[in-house]
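User: Structure with S-adenosylmethionine, tokens only please.
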Amino acid sequence: MNHPAANDPAANDLAAPADRLRATLGHLLDGLPPRQAAGAVERLIANYRGATPTDAPILRDRADVVAYAAYRMPATFEAVRSALAEFADTLPEGWAPDSHVDVGGGTGAATWAVTDTWAGVRPVTVLDWAEPALALGREIAAPCPHSAACPIVPGTDWCHFSARVSRSSLHRQVKGGSLPYEDEKFSYVAATRLPAAPAPSRVVRRPQIRKGQVLLDLCEPDEHLRRTTVTKRHGDLYRAARDVDWGDPWPPG
Ligand SMILES: C[S@@+](CC[C@H](N)C(=O)[O-])C[C@H]1O[C@@H](n2cnc3c(N)ncnc32)[C@H](O)[C@@H]1O
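Assistant:
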């Protein structure tokens, strides 16, 4: 065997992909009622075994995808890992792929197997028409407190944050401004295949500090935008609200 990472968890600082996959799937299933998961699995099996051609994704929503992942991912991972181990044995010592494309990759089981076989980081492209499957495969770590669709209605606004940039005199000359700083607006998404610990909620506007109260616009884990008012009566929480910045998690950890 010339692929040390496959059987040597110590080859990574982190646990082996097989253990991480098991832990991640357990974490995902935590929030799904067992009856809903079982119902989704039955429907998926019936669809996959049936002869009906489909012209739309069978994996329709997050419940389908979580059920599919729990039901199929460990087995697919082991099968692909086993095939890749044989393949790796035939290759010159030290060879590893530069990149990896998985066509019809669903929740990305094969990508986990590739990582297990060849340690290291490489660009990965997973192509699939089932967006919920892709979303599950790349659990969002930040800024969203969930891995579902953005609650902002397209065209009405955009999810963004702001970073203050000091302006040098050259910068001011070039840009023609007089302030010693400018605010750069930006948007980002950080996704990971590792178990993520997203923020409980996130402050998505500049907090409005009023007398005795702070108004916070939050993106929440149930995929809604909500304004919350924190007043002096909230004690420590109020003091925290006066310090919280646009883009921070809420409440602070
Ligand atoms: C049987 S699943 C296998 C998923 C993944 N390769 C695995 O082993 O876990 C087939 C996948 O192909 C995707 N798929 C089927 N037809 C497709 C199409 N026309 N375009 C894009 N993806 C498609 C499905 O959404 C599904 O995720």
